């Protein structure tokens, strides 16, 4: 699975994120390592964004029980024979990471999106990612 460069962005309620950043980065990193393996740890990039109160809405109503996690992966992960298993494991593991740190009540409102990039469209430090 080394054809991936896992990087994720998480948009979370600011009121829940504040003070939990370190624990959440650790949990999200461990979730990815748990699926990909230890080799991925130094490649995992996490960006956390706190969404101010009133700026997360579900069904037209402001809520503080939603979270959005976008994981960028190489498109090759979807071409593997075990792609369905890997994607299910990623979705579950990342949701578990968010809820273990920020609260189980976020589970129903947590969306995980796997965003694929072809190898020739992923760059690190100005060069094609390994």
What report would you give on this structure?
It is a single chain. This protein is of the alpha/beta class and 130 residues long. The chain contains three helices and eight strands; from the N terminus they run βααββββαβββ. The protein is globular. The model has no long low-confidence stretch (mean pLDDT 89).
Q: What secondary-structure arrangement, pairings included, does this model have?
A:
Layout: E1 7-13, H1 14-17, H2 21-36, E2 45-51, E3 57-58, E4 61-62, E5 67-74, H3 83-102, E6 110-117, E7 123-124, E8 127-128
Parallel strand pairs: 1-2, 5-6
Antiparallel strand pairs: 1-5, 3-4, 7-8
Secondary-structure-derived class: alpha/beta
Order of helices and strands: EHHEEEEHEEE
* Model regions low in confidence, pLDDT < 50 over at least 5 residues: none
Shape: globular
Report Rg. 15 Å
For the secondary structure, the number of strands is 8
Keywords:
130 residues; two-stranded antiparallel sheet; 4-stranded mixed sheet; globular; alpha/beta
In short:
The protein is α/β, with parallel strands linked by helices and 130 residues long. It has helices spanning 14-17, 21-36, 83-102; strands at residues 7-13, 45-51, 57-58, 61-62, 67-74, 110-117, 123-124, 127-128. The N and C termini lie close together (12 Å).
